[in-house]
Amino acid sequence: MMTEPHRVQGLNNDDVAADWPAISTGELAWLKGRYLQLGSSNQLRWHSPRPLSAAAIASGSDVDVFIKRHHHSVRSAACLQEEHRFMAHLRAGGIPVSQVLPDRDGNTAIEHGDWTYELHAVGVGSDLYRDAPSWTLLTNTHQAAEAGRMLARLHQAAASYHAPQRSTHLLVARDDLIRSADPIAALKLTLPQRPALARYLARIPWEAELQRHVLPWHQGLAQRLAQEPRLWAHNDWHVSNLLWTQDGSDPHIGTVMDFGLASPTSALFDLATAIERNAVAWLQLEQGARAVRTDIALALLQGYRQVLPLSAARVHLLADLLPMVHFDFALSEVEYFEGITGSTANADVAWQPFMLGHPIWFNSPPGQSLLQALHAAA
């Protein structure tokens, strides 16, 4: 049993107190009554340092079990099942997605008190990046190419999956506003249903800041994205969400995890997100050119194109989408911190260095160099 307060990764790669309490042995005892896969397990062997939910690993009857718990205001059981149906489709299509475990009644997500739970079988492979926060650079080009190939395979399997848009904006990566001809007008239409986001934006000159720093990158994007088919996508393709196996000297992906940000976006959106997540050290931009790994970005792209060819026009669109790919999710994080955890300081981080800071960086010499390299790869 844990005796010290649970600590997690903060937004600045720091060690902070968790917003959500660690999963307890009391919760494990209750879950054992619902999940036969837990068997006689009575020990939690590891607690996740991720900050937006609580997660732990317990020893199950046949396999180790990954337990993830969300506050009900962030994920309902019905909302989680949107992810789980997509994952089941991918598994049926041969993608090594982590297996969601059903409870005794066949439910893949259950609610209890203030919480919503989901359980997964721990996947095949080593979690090489278990302690790596998002925005941590991927430094191995062989792994980057393999990640690109697996992402393309996932998109091939996803092409036959059709389901509506997610039922929530919270902590989901969508591209609705990016696809809109007028993102500000489109955002205003959603604010009556998003009171926390509306409350935060009312305190700042958000329209002027978006017009100045973000929307210049949007020029012409909506018309070009209209030609991109909607595709359910992972939308958080960071190496910390992949388990790795070793076949000789070549790394291979054994398991794809964490579909919490999944939604219908597009293949290019997912690939641009992978580049943003893995090739730019967003928390170390003071390092200048050393904060970006263009070779990682190009290896991701090359690996992807080995499985799914991309025309020159689509690679140019990929590069032009990159400075905007964070747009909808940044707003989602502002909404989460303002409305769920009540942290104005974290909401400010989501708005300033995330929403505004990313497109500003793409105007810098290192950012321009990355975009030019992607355009050249077309």
Would you give an account of this structure?
It is a single chain. The chain is 42% helix and 14% strand. The protein is α+β, with helices and mostly antiparallel strands and 378 residues long. The protein folds into two domains: 115 residues, Phosphorylase Kinase, domain 1 (2-Layer Sandwich), CATH 3.30.200; 237 residues, Aminoglycoside phosphotransferase (APH), C-terminal lobe (Aminoglycoside 3'-phosphotransferase, Chain: A, domain 2), CATH 3.90.1200. The chain has a five-stranded antiparallel beta sheet, with no helix packed on it.
Which features characterize this protein?
11 strands, alpha+beta, Aminoglycoside 3'-phosphotransferase, Chain: A, domain 2, 378 residues, Phosphorylase Kinase, domain 1, single chain, two-stranded antiparallel sheet, 14 helices, 5-stranded antiparallel sheet
Structure class: alpha+beta
Strand content: 5-15%
Number of helices: 14
What name does the CATH topology of the largest domain carry? Aminoglycoside 3'-phosphotransferase, Chain: A, domain 2
How many individual domains?
A: 2
CATH architectural type of the largest domain: Alpha-Beta Complex
The major beta sheet can be summarized as: 5 strands, antiparallel
Distance N terminus to C terminus?
Answer: 54 Å
Low-confidence stretches: none
- N-to-C series of helices and strands: EEHEEEHEEHHHHHHEEEEHHHHHH
Sheet with most strands: strand arrangement: 3-4-5-7-6
Q: What's the quaternary structure here?
A: single chain
CATH level 4 superfamily of the largest domain = Aminoglycoside phosphotransferase (APH), C-terminal lobe
Helicity level: 40-55%
CATH class descriptor name of the largest domain: Alpha Beta
Rounded average pLDDT? 92
